[in-house]
Amino acid sequence: MSKDSCDGCDRTVTVSGGIANIWSFGTDAGTVGTAITLELDDGGSYLLCYPCLEALPDYPTDEDIDRLEQVDEETSRVGSP
């Protein structure tokens, strides 16, 4: 797994897949990582941790992602505009 940082809150995240998971033979089916790439309707693409994903509204915009902030190691929230 590779390590990167969340585009919303900057916490360190792991991304499953790639050469690091070649010997798992599908046992975890790509569920080991702590982040996922979110692609917006306007073409924007962001690597976000799961707490940031949960803090976003149903149809997020670039502005919603820009307002994400870290509260602690477990949660994120959308800050005031």
From TrEMBL:
Pfam families: DUF7561. This is Small CPxCG-related zinc finger protein. InterPro entries: DUF7561. It comes from Natrinema pellirubrum (strain DSM 15624 / CIP 106293 / JCM 10476 / NCIMB 786 / 157). It comes from the Archaea.
